[in-house]
Amino acid sequence: MAQRLSEPDLHDDIDITLLDPSVLQDLRVLSKDNADRVAKHLVMAAELLEDDPQLALRHARAAKNRAGRVGVVRETNGVVAYHAGEWREALSELRAARRMTGGPGLLAVMADAERGLGRPEKALEIGRGPEARELNEEDRIELAIVLAGARHDLGQHESALATLDRLNPSLDSEGYSQARLSYAYADALLALDRKDEARTWFEHAAELDEEEMTDARERLAELD
Description:
Blueprint: H1 2-5, H2 21-26, H3 32-48, H4 53-66, H5 71-83, H6 87-101, H7 107-116, H8 120-128, H9 137-153, H10 157-165, H11 176-191, H12 195-208, H13 216-223
Helix pairs in contact: 3-4, 4-5, 5-6, 6-7, 7-8, 7-9, 8-9, 9-10, 9-11, 10-11, 11-12, 12-13
C-alpha cells in the first residue's frame, strides 16, 4: 500500500488507446480499475521518457508494482530504467520480461546496460548467445553497434570494425537503421585513423538521417 501511495500523479485525461492494442490485451488479466491505472502509467512513462526520464521511471515502476507478472510491463520498466541510466534495474527487468514472454528480447539494450556497468565482456557474451540469431535485421544492427562499442571499450578497434563489417554496410543502403550502421562504421574507421573513408560513411549517414537523429553532420564538420 505504501508503494501505491507514493505513485506519481495521473491525470484524468490520459488516453490509454495510445498504447499498442496488444499491450492493452495483456493487461486484461488484471482487474479493470488496476488495468486502467497501469495503462495510464505506461502512457506517461512513454511520454516523459525523452524530457524527464526519472519521472518516466517512477511511472514505469508504479506500473510494475501493480502488474509485476505482466511481461510487457516488466519490459517497459527495463527500457525506461535503461534510458534513466539505471543499468542494474534495466538488466533485471529485461531478464524477467524474457523469462515471461520468451523470444530474444531486447538484447541490444541489455548488452548496452552491461557496458554501462563497465562490463564490455558481458556485453560480448550476450552477442554470442543463441538468441542473437533470432533477431530481425533492425535489431541485429542495433546489437552489432553495441558490440562494436564494447570492442572499442576494450581498445579492440579492428575487431569493432570487423563486427560491423559482418552486417555488410553499403553506400547504396536506405533507412534510419542503415544510417545508424553507417555512422557506427564511420566511427570505427575514424578510430583506426582512416579519415577519408570515415568521411564517406559519415556523409552517407547524414544523407539517410533526414530527421538528424544522429550528429553525423557535426562529425563531418569536425573532419573538414
